[in-house]
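Next comes a concrete protein, fold included:
___
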Amino acid sequence: MVGQTKFESLVESATNIGVGYIVSLMVQILVFPLFDLQVTLTENVVICLIFTAASLIRMYFLRRFFNWSKLNGNIRSDRVEHERVAVVGAGVSRAGFFGKDSHHNYPDKN
């Protein structure tokens, strides 16, 4: 399996962030008045742009890190499973990410 190119990572991240920007701007316009925050539309746009830029940078570098980890054998895609969480009494104990837990018999993938 071949990982994403840097450009593909950037395009995916930018698309995700673009949609998130629109949603965040709408939420800000609706929520700020509930907290008695009076800002103009221009100020809302600038605030949202600052947080959007931070999100784009964060998402790009995290995606590149995980892509690098996967290509270097630090993450094996054939073994990745959703983390199983076993509820024990009033607390939650986390079962091993790849291993078996004491409540279920999951087949090993070799």
